[in-house]
């Protein structure tokens, strides 16, 4: 579930902190690359160094810990910390890339052969059901945090720039709708909109921090769960346990 927190937090950072309506869509696409490249890097590192390092349970635990630590550090985001967030999301997704593919191995090797279908099915259900719950939880936390902060920050900021309470409220309601809606607010000036916009951005800083910190509980549970995984070291060899039924070695299969 922690992975889905990153999928909510980082794209929201790109949309609200690191780009504006006038930003080139190409630049916005480039900002998404660290997240995807981190995933590929983690999987590649597992392929290259997993066997050499061994200690499978502890490398799984360590990779999940890396994901959780750097994923939670995304809560430090501000508009001025774009480079830091790019580095953190890359490192978090590198940990996820390693853990994701190694966890599949644990699912396959952590049970008896005749229980592979059950373990794979339960893993799929947990992933998709947990993902749906996680997206709902994190989105709700972010939305509620931004909404509560907006009342405290945006309205005073607009009023400080000269807006009446009614105009300030209208600006607040128009902010999520974009420049066209803001331009249609009666009595709104450029200074009012700019002041309210800066405050609204700060609301997302607070909301994203709250969301990142809330994800820590799921991450800690995941780390603890990794510590109690079965040891699969004795199975990580070049020995083939199962042969195709139409293979010449089919008689070596324990189950047919």
TrEMBL record:
What UniProt keywords apply to this chain's record, in alphabetical order?
Membrane, Transmembrane, Transmembrane helix, Transport
> Where is this protein localized, as stated in its record?
Membrane
Q: Name one GO molecular function term.
A: transmembrane transporter activity
Q: How does it sit in the membrane?
A: Multi-pass membrane protein
What's one GO-annotated cellular component? plasma membrane
Membrane-crossing residue ranges in chain numbering? 25-46, 58-77, 83-104, 174-200, 206-229
Q: Please tell me where this protein is predominantly located.
A: membrane
Which organism is this protein's natural source?
Friedmanniomyces endolithicus
- Which top-rank group of organisms is this from? Eukaryota
Pfam families attached to this UniProt entry = TRI12 (PF06609)
Q: Could you identify this protein by its name?
A: Major facilitator superfamily (MFS) profile domain-containing protein
């Amino acid at each position: 579930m922690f992975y889905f927190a990153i999928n909510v937090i980082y794209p929201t950072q790109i949309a609200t902190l690191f780009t504006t309506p006038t930003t080139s869509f190409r630049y916005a696409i480039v900002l998404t690359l660290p997240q995807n490249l981190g995933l590929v890097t983690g999987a590649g590192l597992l392929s290259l160094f997993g066997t050499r390092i061994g200690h499978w349970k502890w490398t799984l635990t360590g990779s999940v810990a890396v994901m959780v630590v750097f994923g939670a550090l995304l809560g430090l985001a501000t508009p001025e910390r774009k480079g830091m967030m790019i580095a953190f999301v890359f490192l978090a997704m590198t940990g996820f890339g390693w853990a994701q593919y190694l966890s599949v191995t644990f699912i396959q090797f952590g049970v008896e052969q005749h229980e592979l279908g059950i373990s794979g099915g339960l893993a799929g259900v947990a992933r998709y059901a947990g993902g749906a719950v996680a997206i709902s939880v994190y989105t709700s936390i972010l939305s509620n945090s931004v909404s509560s902060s907006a009342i405290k920050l945006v309205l005073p900021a607009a009023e400080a720039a000269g807006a009446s309470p009614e105009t300030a409220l209208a600006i607040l309601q128009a902010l999520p709708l974009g420049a066209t809606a803001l331009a249609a607010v009666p009595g709104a000036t450029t200074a009012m909109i700019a002041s309210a916009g800066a405050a609204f951005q700060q609301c997302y800083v607070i909301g994203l921090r709250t969301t990142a910190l809330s994800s820590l509980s799921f991450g800690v549970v995941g780390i603890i769960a990794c510590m109690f995984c079965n040891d699969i070291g004795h199975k990580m060899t070049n020995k083939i346990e199962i042969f195709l039924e139409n293979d010449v070695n089919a008689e070596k299969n324990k189950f047919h």
